[in-house]
Amino acid sequence: MSKQMKSVLKLASVSLFVVSLAACGSSSDTGSTDRGLGSPLDIVNKGLSQLGYSPDNDGYAYKAVAFPAADQKYIEDELKQPLEDALNKVGDGYVLQVTGHTCSIGPRNAMGGKKGNTWYSTQRAKGVYDALIKAGFPKEKLTYKGVADDELLVDADPRDAENRRVTFKIVPQQ
User: Fold this and answer.
1) Pairing relationship of beta strands 94-100 and 166-172 according to DSSP bridges
2) Count of Cβ atoms closer than 10 Å to residue 66 Cβ
């Protein structure tokens, strides 16, 4: 799939996400259900599952963790507003979790001279977290973590670069 086509699909996903937020109504009661669709938190997180980040939308290169400075504009123009809208939808007591992922290549934890997938995934999440703060997202409304290869994509080979990505989810503030 071409980069241009991926950009168009991502923009369409973001647009669909914003529309789904508007359709959720204005209630911030996360304990209620709406016609069996789940709580507003569930609905918002389902929408967020359509958003993500990886350099050039192709997955991070193996062992790469740096957030490319050229992608700051993408964070500011495409991701910041939908992420803020999602967080505002659920109200107080929640934060946006930036989650870094790896593929299944390499050890989970540091071993010998290898840093391990937990380290790589955490650094990827931290890079996007820092970019969101630079874009003006309130630091107190963010958290980040790495999950290594615990959340592989269902439709991708576990060793595929698509698994090396950053995702977003609203979680209770701790």
Assistant:
1) antiparallel
2) 11
Q: What is the pLDDT of residues 9-48, one digit of tens each?
A: 454 454 444 445 444 444 444 444 445 568 889 999 999 9
| Tokens linked to 137 | 């997202």
Q: How many CB atoms lie within 10 A of CB 56?
A: 12
CATH code of 3-26+39-172, in short, is 3.30.1330.60
Strands, sheet with 94-100, edge to edge from the N-terminal-most edge strand: 142-146, 94-100, 166-172
Are the beta carbons of 58 and 160 closer than 8 angstroms?
no
Both tokens assigned to 163: 């698994």
The whole-model pTM stands at: 0.81
